[in-house]
Automatic annotation (TrEMBL):
<dbReference type="GO" id="GO:0005789">
    <property type="term" value="C:endoplasmic reticulum membrane"/>
</dbReference>
<feature type="transmembrane region" description="Helical">
    <location>
        <begin position="138"/>
        <end position="156"/>
    </location>
</feature>
<feature type="transmembrane region" description="Helical">
    <location>
        <begin position="250"/>
        <end position="272"/>
    </location>
</feature>
<keyword id="KW-0472">Membrane</keyword>
<feature type="transmembrane region" description="Helical">
    <location>
        <begin position="333"/>
        <end position="352"/>
    </location>
</feature>
<dbReference type="InterPro" id="IPR005599">
    <property type="entry name" value="GPI_mannosylTrfase"/>
</dbReference>
<keyword id="KW-1133">Transmembrane helix</keyword>
<comment type="function">
    <text>Mannosyltransferase that operates in the biosynthetic pathway of dolichol-linked oligosaccharides, the glycan precursors employed in protein asparagine (N)-glycosylation. The assembly of dolichol-linked oligosaccharides begins on the cytosolic side of the endoplasmic reticulum membrane and finishes in its lumen. The sequential addition of sugars to dolichol pyrophosphate produces dolichol-linked oligosaccharides containing fourteen sugars, including two GlcNAcs, nine mannoses and three glucoses.</text>
</comment>
<feature type="transmembrane region" description="Helical">
    <location>
        <begin position="198"/>
        <end position="217"/>
    </location>
</feature>
<feature type="transmembrane region" description="Helical">
    <location>
        <begin position="111"/>
        <end position="131"/>
    </location>
</feature>
<dbReference type="GO" id="GO:0052917">
    <property type="term" value="F:dol-P-Man:Man(7)GlcNAc(2)-PP-Dol alpha-1,6-mannosyltransferase activity"/>
</dbReference>
<feature type="transmembrane region" description="Helical">
    <location>
        <begin position="301"/>
        <end position="321"/>
    </location>
</feature>
<comment type="similarity">
    <text>Belongs to the glycosyltransferase 22 family.</text>
</comment>
<feature type="transmembrane region" description="Helical">
    <location>
        <begin position="162"/>
        <end position="186"/>
    </location>
</feature>
<keyword id="KW-0808">Transferase</keyword>
<comment type="pathway">
    <text>Protein modification; protein glycosylation.</text>
</comment>
<dbReference type="Pfam" id="PF03901">
    <property type="entry name" value="Glyco_transf_22"/>
</dbReference>
Amino acid sequence: MIAESLLTGVAFGYLILAPYTKVEESFNIQACHDMLYHGPFLSRYDHHEYPGVVPRSFLGPAMLSTLALPFVTTARVMGVNKIYSQYLVRLALSLLVVFAWSRFYQQVKKGFGMGVAVWFTAITITQFHFVYYLSRTLPNSFALIFALLSCSYWLEQNHKKFIVASGIGVAIFRIDLVLMLGPMLVHDLVTKRIGLKSCLFQSVTVGGTLLAVTVAFDSLLWGRWVWPEGEVFYYNTILNQSHHWGPLPWYFYSALPRALGASILFVPVGIVLDKRMRLLTAPALVMVALFSLLPHKELRFIIYVVPLFNVAAAYACQNLYMRCRKSTRWSALSAVVVGHLLLNCLLTALLASASAANYPGGVALWRLHELVPAEAHVSVHIDNLAAQSGATRFLQMHPNWHYNKTEDLRPGSRELRSFSHLLVEAKNKYAYNLKHYADTHRILEAVEAFSHLSFNYQQFPPVKVRI
């Protein structure tokens, strides 16, 4: 349990460091809030009050809300601030991912030895993005649970559980998981590890059941017939409309180096050293290559491949380190093998500090509650940037306050000026768009956010986060 405890501890540290959420997490975190605080009163749900969001499945939020409900209820009875319910929800998600990671870790230890498992743990906890995403309510984080379970069942050669876990991940959370899990199943079909008839029967049965569950449950909460993941896949992939979110560079030289850190140097070494590493990483390479063909790319889309590449890197580190111990000629290499973990930590510290300053909306709404008395008559408008950068319903702490996030209101309009408080995006305190409110409002506080990284090789550290 040491590996799991370390991973949980680091993930919890990131949760404390960055407790707020971004737009990609918005639907799931708002749905968790509404299930916990509004229950069966669907008309009060965020997606009904502010329609237009991309349809996602409510099954993930339902799972988290069920796990967090006893603790949230206790916190409410004790009068604990509502924001801490958001902590509990995110903690529940991170524990689910850690559980799935633990299953995968056990298979790594069983198949490749304790030494590889130790390196696998060390590499994982010193990288940033994988652990940072454990508690973030992204559709990808829910899918990661079942991707890890699927990979562990594949290594275990338990095809029934593999098909069920894969089906949940693909049909409910992220259909693009098929790009990684599909090649695993195809490999076992080709090598006769599973029969074609058995595979088809199980896949059709499981797939049909899961499709019926998600369509029935989600249609009820959305108020229309919908298969959420199918609708998203059709828009982004079949219609190839993902370019509207902005084209980005190929994963191989963009996202993977950021996700794997210095450990990426050891992945090809592990692949060369052992045939099993080539088999393990092949599905990950297929997914990365195919996903790179789409114009819009984000690291979170391929977060599932990180554990597979980390096993290859861990295998290389274990082999190289053991050679170093046996021969003085290799002793210098041992410093490189161990030292790369330090490089991972330095990169992680830089990325973590940047990420912590990336949620101005959450900070602004929290500060508003600190600056204004709870009993005051407050109507606050939350603008688009604030809503996208952390101002969730968990931060709407006073029932007597009126919160509104209606979009496309004209700056300086009568509607906006009628609110007692405004969360407004601006470049600085003297920005032109703030002059519209000079005669009706005053600036209570300005919240700065991450801007860019600056490099100065004449100072230490040479990289600084600018806000």
